């Protein structure tokens, strides 16, 4: 037998099984080449929005798409159970990663990439090589592997190896349910292999020449969908589709009689037994007696094992989804050990099993482990097949394991000289399975196995047995605007469990435009129905997108249809960016939409917080009281207007409005309008109104004497000092001596900080728009770190500052960052307040920063272990501010900071240095 070192082994597939096989084979001293048809590793876990031309995946001439991952997919096993034993799957602190116990598919892919990098597998992988033939060489002792560039087009390679390990996944060749009458049924069919969450230009499925965007279709025309299946994908997809469909009917072979009927907690999902027949009028009849007229049948019916490249002269066949004969699901007796399979069993914890299978194969190939004779293996296979037949288990379930997997795994461990599967892993699998069945909606985010987690992390040597408190922090975030979204991300990364409360039905906060306005145009009536949006239709950002975006997720133009590519985009583009951000990092599922928080106060033990919420517009009904370790207040400060105190206003006859209720200029057509304010909204709105108004007079506290008078470039806009008085004849008199008879006064005078839900206990107050006492605008000393605020400073580049504030909060809550003592924080606040007073800065400007923001941001960065704010970002802010003052009409569309743009995009790794 050749030296173990001399074994050459071809591994087919660079998914989790292939990567594990490569590692174990190389550890054993073999020389390994991994063939991967895609341009990246990951196999099953590589998501692509692309789908096949045949939505059922039956057309043998179709271009096969090997991914079956849908966009919303999360693991149905916790990461601790799921990871390789040699490389635990624990949350990292890396930017953009998903820290959840049951992460999304993207996090699994990143974990596999980390595994590859850590163990140096990459050099073994040949990407973009499609294996189209594997067969015995002429000497019948070695294997010829024929490959070509993926997509065809020549460049064929024939290479000879001592052994081949087949690790290509079994999630690309759909199995379709056999339905009586389906040939005449008129509806549409799709297999879950081709299910994604599509947008208008991706993930289309079609029949003939008719292209169907399934979720968009469901949203526009609510359909009745019948979904066949009972596995994890069926559970997930049925709930995903139910958000859009009129009805979803799940046909399950394993449906328990007492569970048949409407899904608990869902108004439009029903569980049925199997389909009895379908009919040409669209009817779908179930064995439980129920019928419905359906538009779509979605087959979540699994996959066929499929190895079109394999030529074994019938030594290995696939019959009714049994791959065989295989000894222990791995070795075909007549070809062992030179041909083997990894990853065929299903309903298992896959990665640890891949590891053990690969270790056994590697040891057998090296001669370190002795494999049974062909006769012994054949006898074992025959006994196994007989036991399945005696138990009435169909052939297609040959590789299904479920709870029997751990007996198999421990057998593999014994064969390969490895420790048996850990008890905590076995128990965690069983506990997760029970909770998945009993609480399918919440099992991923609410768990009761902290003792098993402790055992896991003790073994990983990453966490202590007692587990740091960060693992157990429960945090309520109030508001799903930009501050709330980044808070959710950073808190989750730190290991906290987060719930975000959002009173609206959409994320976005300040950036969520609504044409609706309040009944009181000044926003002073305490009984009014509050409209939280303050965005006007024409609003564009007054900062360039490069400066404005989160550092972890640059705000760059996309090629998506309908998007706004401008450097200073409209409000709708900012909202879309926030939606992209939430989708990218899987934040949406943390958010409870339509929940209005009406009370936040200390629990009876004075150590935790009670958050009381209710469905918006439901009054006192539908209330929830939940207890959290900490609360992070991220509700915006752009919904409670501040109104100017104008002498004589009670007798002035004109109309008044606050900019909070301004949307479009039409109500001011042909009128004389006085606008009070000098901030960004005043600049924009004055020019917006001037398009239709007779005259616009801007009264500004900060108007330079040399600028008073008619606006440059405008025939009907004047700048004045502040209003001196108004009179019953309609006159508005300014301190500069000018006066006019006005029809309307528009207050662009800012907003009050307003936290009506926060219990008044004197620990935090709002006085003349100072929220305090707060250490560094974030922590009230007597309640820190359990209560904190994000986003109070103004005249700043907000999103990067939110990011740094939330990193600091998250690290303090986890114990990774030490917070100053109550006394130290209080002393710092007092010194800050004294400095403001000495400088003559009014209390209401406590949270105004402007040029001082970057000193503050860099302080936060140092506290949280982050890089300081980039120099290009600081310079871009200053340059933009100067141009806004000097060229208010054109600064958004004419710029001279290409050098800073270049640095920004160089850092984003999206554009070349030349931009």
TrEMBL record:
Record EC number: 1.-.-.-
Gene3D superfamilies to which the protein is assigned, alphabetical: FAD/NAD(P)-binding domain
GO molecular function, one term: N,N-dimethylaniline monooxygenase activity
Highest taxon, organism lineage: Eukaryota
Cofactor(s) the protein requires to work: FAD
Oxidoreductase keyword on record: yes
Keywords: FAD, Flavoprotein, Monooxygenase, NADP, Oxidoreductase
Signal sequence coordinates: none
Assigned protein family: Belongs to the FMO family.
Protein known as: Flavin-containing monooxygenase
